[in-house]
Amino acid sequence: MINIIDEKCVGCGVCVSACPFDAIDIKDDKAVILDNCTICGSCVSSCNFDAIDFQKEESDDTIDKSEYHGIWVFGEQRNNEVLPVVFELLGEGRKLAEELAVPLSVVLMGSNLADKAHTLISYGADNVYMVEDESLETYNDQSYTDIFTQLVNTYKPEIILIGATTYGRSLAPRIASRLNTGLTADCTYLSIDKETGNLMQTRPAFGGNLMATIVCPDRRPQMSTVRPKVMKPIEPDSTRTGEVIRPNVNIPENIKIKVIDQVQTLCEKVSLTEADIIVAGGRGMGEPKNFELVKELADVLGGAVGATRATVDAGWIDYSHQVGQTGKTVGPKVYFACGISGAVQHLAGMSSSDIIIAINKDADAPIFKVATYGIVGDVLEVLPELIKEFKGRL
Amino acid sequence: MDIIVCVKQVPGTTEIKMNKETNTIIREGAEAIINPFDEYAIEEGVRIKEKMGGSVTVLSMGIPKVADLLRETIAVGVDNAVLLTDRAFAGADTLATSYALATAIKNMESYDLIVCGKQAIDGDTAQVGPSLAEKLGIPHTTNVKKIEEIKEGYIRCQRMTDDGYETIEMSLPAVITVVKEINEPRLPSLKGKLRAKKTEVKLLTAEDIGADVNLCGLKGSPTQVIETFVPEFEVKAEMFEGSAKEQAKSLADALLSMKYAKRVD
Amino acid sequence: MNYFLTEEQEMIKELAAKIADEKIAPIAIEYDHEGKFPHDIVKYLAQSDLCGVYIEEKYGGLGGGVFEMALVVEELSRACGGIALAFAGTGLGTYPIILFGNEEQKQKYLPDIAAGKHLAAFALTEHDAGSDAAGVRTTATLDGDEYVLNGTKQWITNGGEADVYTVIACTNKDKGARGFSAFIVEKDTPGFTYGKKEDKMGIRASCTRELIFNDCRIPKENLLAREGMGFIVAMKTLDRTRPGVAAQAVGIATGAFNAALKYSREREQFGQPISSFQAVQHMLADMAIQIEASRALVYQTCRHIDSGAKNISKESAMAKVIASDTAMKVTTDAVQIMGGYGYMREYPVEKMMRDAKITQIYEGTNQIQRNVIAQELIKEAAKQKK
Description:
The structure holds three protein chains of three kinds.
Chain A: E1 2-4, H1 14-18, E2 24-27, E3 30-33, H2 42-46, E4 52-54, E5 71-75, E6 77-78, E7 81-82, H3 84-100, E8 104-110, H4 116-122, E9 127-132, H5 141-155, E10 159-163, H6 166-179, E11 183-184, E12 189-192, E13 199-205, E14 210-215, E15 222-226, E16 243-245, E17 257-264, E18 277-281, H7 291-301, E19 304-307, H8 309-313, E20 334-338, H9 344-350, E21 355-360, H10 367-370, E22 373-376, H11 379-393
Parallel strand pairs in A: 5-8, 5-10, 8-9, 9-16, 10-15, 11-15, 18-19, 18-20, 20-21, 21-22
Antiparallel strand pairs in A: 1-4, 2-3, 6-7, 12-13, 13-14
Chain B: E1 2-6, E2 9-11, E3 17-19, E4 24-26, E5 32-34, H1 36-52, E6 55-61, H2 66-73, E7 80-84, H3 94-107, E8 113-117, H4 128-136, E9 140-151, E10 154-161, E11 164-171, E12 174-178, H5 190-198, E13 202-204, E14 224-229, E15 238-240, H6 244-256
Parallel strand pairs in B: 1-6, 1-8, 6-7, 7-13, 8-12, 9-12
Antiparallel strand pairs in B: 2-5, 3-4, 9-10, 10-11
Chain C: H1 7-24, H2 28-34, H3 39-47, H4 66-79, H5 81-100, H6 103-114, E1 120-123, E2 139-143, E3 146-157, E4 164-170, E5 180-186, E6 192-197, E7 208-219, E8 223-224, H7 230-266, E9 268-269, E10 272-273, H8 278-306, H9 313-343, H10 349-359, H11 366-385
Parallel strand pairs in C: 1-4
Antiparallel strand pairs in C: 2-3, 3-7, 4-5, 5-8, 6-7, 9-10
Helix pairs in contact in C: 1-4, 4-5, 4-7, 5-6, 5-7, 7-8, 7-9, 7-10, 8-9, 9-10, 9-11
């Protein structure tokens, strides 16, 4: 519950504007929490007088946390290929595993995956739990949930990391719900609290304008989803050794969900999430037809075209190009931000790029704070010059 | 066919600005609205009802004021509105939210399909739909872009995937979460608005639905926010000066010296 | 200002505003430049139940009157005065049926119009019949059970797009204006064709065409009221739709004013927003005064008409004159405040200025309106003397 400690409260009102829900009022020079408070905790850190008491009531159902041990990564595969996000999560998982001195494992489901185990071990896995069955070849919400939770109940991992792909974002909440444990979506930063050993999960909140650190102190396992391209894989080492475990599980029958057809439609020249170079345009491009400049530079450089939410919402370009919190997260070697001011939601989707080039007429635009190189100027003048420059020298 | 649409109240804009000096939120015109993705869920529910008969009920959890937003959905063809509102529900994470919604749904007479928006624009977690399905012990499919066929006990739909789409069959009852490609939500109608004015939103407390308060709200939420902070980015950009032409040249020099740019044929 | 609208009227205004802001504003410039007819917007109006706000409930409408129609027109015109005409022009074409149609005619035509399935148009103007409506040359001759129409109507709003046309034609040349009659003509009637789409200065998303009648035979049941009533039908209709034109003008003016006000707060010159300069402030104040005064008169005139008052010509004319003159003045000033940006076709205010002009011209020029007002004033004075 959140309570105002009246003796400490000076009625300064800072918490009133800190509250995202308009749920604090000042009455008789003291802050008062209103009924529409959602207990999000945003006000606590805003108070300069420690006058807001935020305590969770002790939960009654305590579990024996010591039973839970080790870190798991969901080894999502498609067409028998392990997705890159799995290697990224292994890279992050390795760090956490070392800090906790526990093993790092991958759960791999599908059919004919025997040759994948070694690759996963070379990317940092200590164990590979492999469940093979023809029925698992393509992803199925029901059977994957069933098997995964069987494994969790048998082996009791303390942390589970799942890639925030379409399937990962569908599977993770289903598993967490069945296990009655906490799940934090789209984490951008993970660390271990040295005192408690809890996983500290940081993610953007309120459209990315606030970052929130979330823990799951009383339940296990602790579950997070992480977007592709947010974490970095380690250099694979083929001399690493590990164990392949083929656990005994009941392959579920009586499946209520059936995938009857899969169609691939994304056939862009260069896929946005895989591209090494991305040229992205924002509202500063002025109007839809100026996006041709963005496309032309991308073509010259062999890159992909990105866009901000504002331009997509305005119908200038298709949603598949959207980079940011509600679009794709990208991490190319070079990211050109053309006429993009750098709203935090957009930054959330591209700030892990190696080199960021910002072109914007407003020198104070936030994009310059994450940029490697900056050009203050009219993007409509600079882009044609850049196109000329690269055309002549490549 | 009886359809339940789960909706959430969210701030009217995601562009909440932060005052970095005071670490406080600047609310500008952030009037509460129904989560935009949920509008597509409502429209899809109403379309199915219009084709198959039955009813559409919107269900939400939130502060009493949310009732006004729920009432507005009557104007686009919804039949009933139910709001779970109780201090015991406050501070719920996605698990506790799913528990409360599932408990309320179990109390309802019958339902064939539950439709949710793909995610809420304030939290962007996309967790409640699948979590709710699990609590009800029924199948779910996320990111549905088209319902190909729906009949008693059966649905076939298209789900958007990362590289295309897939066609999925499920038995009903089931949960689907929908993307905005699925339809174009209709505008409210005058007759609907007049009907909405007379419609009572059913308000239910934790006790009304027989929920275990230990599983609701903050108490029933395994996750806790322990800290919020404004993201900081370090200032380090190397700025190029001169005319557009000179700036472009300097940038090309810098990039080409690192061999990041490569020609494609 | 609180105009004490009923709850229902507030809802109508809200729904129309939603369509204006969400559906019309984003496409207004494109439809203007390309002269596209807004069939898609009509669909949204139908979805929202707005097409029949002025039609009786038993014919599928809302049972409102001129005021309800004006509220919709005003809101839509805020985003685009041309697109609003698809609705307002239908009102003009429908009012003769509402006022003079018999039960069968109402049953047959009003429900589809109320549902937004059909649009309507009103055809009075001809080459020689403008301000002097008595110059109508189009003839209708009874032949058995049918009237045969011959002649050409000019500059007809919704021409070629409407499904139902009310046409004023001469049934007895010897009687002058008393020889006019009003008819309902359905689209696709043999002998009824359209001329080319006119290339207009403004309201370009509205469609204006000639209607050409060449031995066009219509059933005699399509006569409205009686033979010889045509002129009365036209005048009574126009008395009721002029506040619609006035509302269109108020809407256009409001749209331009809002754009100029917003711009003046954003545009900086000499290191400060131009809204801080008194020259601009006074222009904004004058614009607001004129708009509010116009709106007040338009709303009150609508209420006066809807109350069932008999003498409405003078009030109706006054509302139209003040609102349309205001629209012209305000849109011109909005362009002025926005300077170069105001003059560019990429921004909406130059379009509003072009759209505003027609409101001073059609449904009776402002000069004719002043004649009407003056005649009524003199008539009233004469009566008082008695």
